[in-house]
Amino acid sequence: MNEHLRTALGLAASGVPVLPLRAGKVPFGNCRRCADNACGGRPNMKTAGPCVCPGPCHAWAAATTAPDVIQSGVWRHAWMRATAVAYHPGGAWLTVVDLDNADAITWARENLPATQTVPTTRGQHWIYQGPMRSVNAVRPGVDIKSTMAYARWLGPGTGTMTELPDVVRALAVKKPPAVRPTAVTVPALTGGGQCRHRSPAFLERGIAMAEQRISEARSAVHTTVYRTFLAVLSTHGRCGCLTDAHVARLFAAAQAKGESPRHCADAWTNARTMLGV
């Protein structure tokens, strides 16, 4: 029996879904039946489709623990050409933290709880019990392989497997980019006038409400910014009470939602034009 096939059957018997890898440590490509997404599966082989192809044809989505499938004719042919065995960590309820170099290993030792460790060509796999979303490049030299991904089988490694910690899960959470206020020339109206709306507190409350409306926008941010500018100008645009500081606050709120300084200036100008102020 082929050595890779023997390894695959042993893993499958322990509940680990397996698949063969060809030269280059990559899965076997789509067969003729599945080429160009004709089977209804996904062409990038990153998600499972409705395809029931009997071969190892859809990367991680083809991984299986069924011995009759693993030993079938088309799979046997693949094992004969295979250069390695891979497995689907998420399907085995596992997460692999792939550390690609010495610096990444040092970082892991300083920040992650110890767990089962497997040496790789250039680094180590740290294997935790529990699945999560797979993400590449969560930090320099560190990938996470779990659901919708595959990892090479490189042996059982050493150490006792630890339950997947929150510190690893947090690596997959995309951090919002830091918002750096951009200096802009604000096309404000003539400022310093006496607000005709009972008291200056009315203006302050209006600006605060406008900032809140922009910051709470969950969609159509461009439109929300323009309509908010329009509302502020329609109320305060003709009394001369708006200052550069007020408008800069509105621009800063819009930029915090991802708007560019140019779009802020354009939206402000368009709102002024619409109102004729």
Q: How would you describe this structure to a colleague?
A:
- Helix 6 (200-215) packs antiparallel against helix 7 (221-236), helix 6 (200-215) packs parallel to helix 8 (244-256) and helix 7 packs across helix 9 (261-275).
- Helices cover 35% and strands 14% of the residues.
- It has helices at 3-13, 67-70, 73-81, 102-111, 166-169, 200-215, 221-236, 244-256, 261-275, and strands at 18-22, 26-27, 84-87, 94-99, 116-119, 124-129, 135-139, 142-145, 151-152, 162-163.
- The chain has 277 residues and is α+β, with helices and mostly antiparallel strands.
- The chain has 9 helices and 10 strands.
- Strands 4, 5, 6, 7, 8 and 10 form a 6-stranded mixed beta sheet that branches. Strands 2-1-3-9 form a 4-stranded antiparallel beta sheet.
- The protein is elongated, with a radius of gyration of 29 Å.
Which structural traits does this protein have?
single chain; 277 residues; alpha+beta; elongated
Rounded to an integer in angstroms, the radius of gyration calculated over CA atoms is: 29 Å
> How much beta, percentage-wise?
5-15%
The helix content, as a percent range, equals 25-40%
Q: What's the number of extended β-strand segments?
A: 10
> Based on CA inertia axes, which overall geometry fits?
elongated
Short description:
The protein has about 280 residues and is α+β, with helices and mostly antiparallel strands. The chain has helices at about 5-15, 65-70, 75-80, 100-110, 165-170, 200-215, 220-235, 245-255, 260-275, and strands at about 20, 25, 85, 95-100, 115-120, 125-130, 135-140, 140-145, 150, 160-165.
